[in-house]
Specification:
Strand order of the largest sheet: 7-8-9-10-11-18
GO molecular function, one term: 5'-3' RNA exonuclease activity
CATH class of the largest domain: Alpha Beta
GO cellular component, one term: cytoplasm
Subunit structure: Homodimer.
Bound molecules: zinc ion
GO biological process, one term: RNA catabolic process
Number of strands: 19
Domain Metallo-beta-lactamase: 15-234
CATH topology of the largest domain: Metallo-beta-lactamase, Chain A
Length: 447
């Protein structure tokens, strides 16, 4: 059986992920993501109304015209998890394929919301929910399996396409976490089995976000304990404390809510995306929050909540807000500019339970946000966080578990791949033979 891999997007950047695997006449598409930074550099752009081709030209979504070169039918579109760089282009591209979107429950709900918000295209693909550990047939001779993995969003999976020539493991995005706070630990046992059963692993496509980092990415339990340490140290502070993190990081938001109560403060989630992700997680039963937890998304209800906090005394509350990257229109940045009813005083605390995504736009915006907060006297607790992506020892462990015949580094730029190329070369892979460093818009012929 002929096996080809089309590296469509996310092979020159972190963002707009999309990969297609053709096995005989059947094609499976993994991820259809958005490169948000290529959208944000344009002022006030509304992608909901934009055409795919314009977004492709901007470098915002994958250029999927290369799909015409693959001879076969798309049988499934499979987003691995709910981050926008993996699902953000579904509303712009999926309608071109006569295939269902297959995803884990939380991911599928976020995909539904993307489709509902879309203003230009009608996405009417079937939506199929599939849990980790489950499988579905692809054509007559292949099978799709979801393996549970751990990442900075709940319900992440790594899809595996079992073909007569061996398994194709699509390894984006994950870290190896045995104590993930919410959800099950990564299923390393299953990865080891897949590496050894039948024809073994024909190809492994790997998340190289942190491939240049030595050592091991710690568990979410470590971030949780760092966060508890910071918050317990502020237990006696009788002024304002504000926290921010990735809205989609449900485990972290849960920890913030829990520790707020532990130090006698009422947590309140503020900002559109805070309300969206936590609301969705609660609705599908993936997370449980206290009954009286306030979640406010709309500008007016957020301002009302801030007024209540100021009236009842900000020492009684922990607002958890958007704006961890210093996004100009996010809640924390607005607070820094004095645009909300919440007043920061000298000595008030701001906890960033996030890392700055190392990219000039983010770095600049975050710098400005911190300066604005600092000018009002706020004390900053930065980087109370661990990454959701494997570092080098995790990559080593995965190669050891899967023993793939071919590897394809993904989810980075050429510079970002270098750490992985080094590591794979030391494990006996060769650039001319079975280690495929590639870019967007290429097709690799494996069999
Ligand atoms: Zn991700």
């Amino acid at each position: 059986m002929e096996i080809e891999i089309a590296t469509i997007g996310g092979y020159e950047e972190v963002g707009r992920q999309m990969t297609a695997v053709r096995a005989g006449d059947d094609i499976v598409v993994f991820d259809m993501g958005l490169n948000l930074s290529n959208v944000l550099i344009h002022d006030d752009i509304r992608t909901e109304q934009m055409h795919s081709l314009d977004l492709i030209d901007m470098g915002a979504i994958p250029d999927d015209r290369i799909m015409n070169d693959l001879e076969g039918d798309v049988q499934a579109i499979v987003p691995t998890h709910g981050h926008l760089d993996h699902i953000g282009a579904i509303s712009k591209l999926a309608h071109r394929y006569d295939a269902p979107i297959v995803a884990a429950p939380f991911t599928l709900d976020l995909v539904k919301e993307e489709i509902q918000d879309e203003g230009k295209f009608q996405v009417q693909n079937d939506l199929i929910e599939m849990d980790a550990g489950e499988t579905m047939p692809i054509g007559d001779r292949c099978e799709l399996e979801f393996v549970n993995v751990t990442h900075s969003i709940i319900n992440a999976i790594n899809p595996v396409l079992h073909t007569p020539e061996g398994a194709i493991v699509y390894g984006l995005d994950k870290r190896i976490d045995h104590t993930p706070v919410i959800g099950d630990p990564i299923d390393m046992k299953r990865f080891r089995e897949i590496g050894r059963e039948g024809q073994g692993v024909l190809c492994y496509i790997e998340d190289c976000t942190n491939a240049n980092k030595k050592g091991r990415t710690p568990s979410e339990a470590v971030a949780r304990s760092q966060l508890r340490d910071v918050m317990r140290s502020l237990e006696d502070y009788d002024g304002g404390i504000v926290a921010t993190t990735f809205s989609s990081h449900i485990a972290r938001v849960t920890s913030l809510v829990e520790f707020a109560e532990e130090i006698g403060r009422q947590p309140v989630l503020l900002g559109r995306s805070m309300e969206k992700y936590s609301g969705t997680a609660e609705r599908i039963g993936a997370a449980t929050f206290p009954n009286d937890l306030g979640m406010y998304g709309h500008r007016k209800s957020v301002d009302r909540a801030f007024k209540r906090i100021m009236n009842e005394g900000k020492e009684n509350f922990l607002p958890v807000v958007t704006g961890h990257q210093g996004e100009p229109r996010a809640m924390l940045t607005r607070m820094g500019r004095g645009e909300t009813p919440y007043e920061l005083d000298d000595g008030d605390k701001v906890i960033f339970s996030a890392r700055v995504i190392p990219e000039p736009t983010n770095e600049g915006q975050r710098y400005q946000s911190e300066r604005l907060l600092g000018m009002q006297g706020a004390r900053i607790y930065d980087d109370v966080h661990v990454s959701g992506h494997l570092s080098q020892e995790g990559h080593y462990t995965m190669l050891d578990a899967l023993q793939p015949q071919h590897v394809v580094p993904a989810h980075q730029s050429m510079k970002g791949f270098s750490g992985y190329v080094d590591l794979a070369a030391k494990q006996g892979y060769n650039l001319d033979r079975d280690l495929h460093v590639t870019s967007n818009g290429n097709v690799i012929q494996l069999v």
